[in-house]
Specification:
It is a single chain. By secondary structure, this protein is α+β, with helices and mostly antiparallel strands. The chain is 45% helix and 20% strand. It contains three helices and three strands, in the order αβαβαβ. The protein has a three-stranded antiparallel β-sheet with strand order 1-3-2, sandwiched between helices.
């Protein structure tokens, strides 16, 4: 809601992932909502085709697509981290 809470939480998650020496941070969201995809793209995330996702991310997407509305719109995004 334009108060910075989402960006604060995302930056915290990025810092945590770097501290764990993770090579990248993944998330799933609705790709058809411009404010979702645009926000994450501004933060360095890019969309990843389903076939290029790990089995764990695919499992997560499959579960979301089973239970959430607009299942065909669920997408995975990844930000590669530099240490």
């Amino acid at each position: 809601m334009q108060r910075g809470a989402g960006r604060f939480l995302l930056r915290h998650a990025l810092a945590w992932a770097r501290a764990q020496h993770e090579p990248s941070l993944w998330l799933t969201t609705y790709g058809h909502l411009a404010f979702n995809r645009f926000f994450y793209e501004k933060e360095g995330f890019g969309g990843v085709p389903y076939d290029e996702c790990s089995l764990g991310v695919r499992h997560h997407l499959d579960d979301e697509r089973r239970w959430l509305p607009a299942p065909e719109q669920r997408v995975a995004m990844r930000r590669v981290l530099t240490q």
